[in-house]
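To: structure desk
From: M.T.
Subject: fold request, one chain
Message: Could you run this one when you get a chance? Sequence is below, nothing fancy, just the single chain.
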Amino acid sequence: MSNSIITPHGEKLCNLMQDEKYLNKFNKDILQLKSWTLSDRQLCDIEMILNGGFSPLDGFMNRRDYNSVCEKMRLENNLLWPIPITLDINDELVDTLEINEEIALRDKEGFVIAILTIGDIWTPDKEKEAQQIYQTTDIFHPGVNTLLNETHSTYVGGTLKGIHYPKHYDYPQLRHTPQELRESFDNWGWKDIIAFQTRNPMHRAHIELTKRALNEKNAKLLIHPVVGLTKPGDVNHYTRVRCYKHIMNKYPKNMAALSLLPLAMRMAGPKEALWHAIIRKNYGCNYFIVGRDHASPGLNKDNTPFYGPYDAQEMLNTNTNELGIKMIPFKQLVYVKEKKSFIGVDEVPKNLTALTVSGTELRKLLDEGKEIPEWFSYPEVISELQKQRPSLSNRGFTIFFTGLSGSGKSTLANGLLVKLLEEGRRPVSLLDGDIVRTHLSSELGFSKEHRSLNVRRIGFVASEITKNGGIAICAPIAPYRLDRQFNRNMIDPLGGYIEIFVSTPLEVCEQRDAKGLYAKARKGILKQFTGIDDPYEKPRNAEIVINSSNDKPETLVDQILHQIHKMGY
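Reply: Done. Structure tokens follow.
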């Protein structure tokens, strides 16, 4: 057993929150400062900087640290650090800023979180950053997609003075700064502490895995789940925390603690694992469990994994001596039916039956309302998951039509609306493109930016309908693949999402041209018209593809309804 709690990364735990004297001065000067409203991701990052979770960082990275991290996984002072922590802002604000200027960083309600003293302003090569950090520029990678498509083009670096931590109304008793956790460990007499990273609910195999680690190291356990931004489609953190609270009594008394981590994950695989280890070192842990596919972003555009299953473990092994915090590697555990116990997947005798339930299989069981085996999880955990993800037949969902103007989207959407109202099983709302343009997006034009904003507004309204158990039928053109994926990522975790590509050919759409729009576009009267002088990006993964060229609308509506029922809704 070690004699003291592990030293923070870089030897000193940062605390950037200011004293009362500064706050009194700040309150008088604040109105004179320019402001930036932080995104959800930036709010997570700034909280981790201010509370010392990202020690030794004392602000957002400057260009020299950024370049060094991207190229060598090290800060400019040569300290190991694998992930750039940067502040991106829009051009409108950038054009007004000067080096050494102070700006106020605010949350979405306008409360000032910190004051940034600007030390650097630059335009990064984001494609290069994606390749260096994620080893890919494939936007199927959620971290790459965020970087390339949702991050502003200019970075601002500089030191921070903390004013207020971001406000959290949920689970305040489970939110601790690194210093608070270190003080608790000291008060409890904990010295050797194992951190367990998770962004998913914990099941019986996870409990078995962590108990083995406790016994092996004669240590204590910190269950430290991420409750900031995780992978799109993950179980929401409210449900997960309720699950974690249920499983805490599965451990011996005074052997395990639960604390929430406000981290925005990048899903960067091996580099993310190294980053997670550094963070847990700052929180006072000297061991870190790394299992199979740590921080995995899923599959690439070719349907293969971005990283190998044990790349993260190899990354930690390579850097163990410098890190200080030690890795506990674990391979996948499976339940052996004949032994009624969990065994390492590589240790199961050939004559015995190994059972496991993948995340995909678990979601399928929940969707179909089928029984989840008790050997896999605990009844109280299963109950929470069933509440969060009811069977498809009892769940709200969105039907998202997309296709060219004149393809038949509105006709089919209206027909489907009537059929679903006729069934009467759920409330149904139609969000037709023209109707939304009139009532929700009347101020928008038809630029690429405005079209994207319109489609995402539709997605937001649909997400609220879905979340509350209704059916949202959307029928915009939605020409851009990225916007459709954005809506899918937003809506799918809340219920269900069915994309219907109305693949009617352009020549048929032109023949129909009831509004004369194609004719005007061909003559150059109507500019940026989808399918003529503005692209339509065909869906790659639509649940239903239908061509309205030859069949009657009522026939097609019946086909669509049959497909929806066949899916389980």
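Reply (cont.): The chain has a mean pLDDT of 93. Let me know if you need anything else for the meeting.
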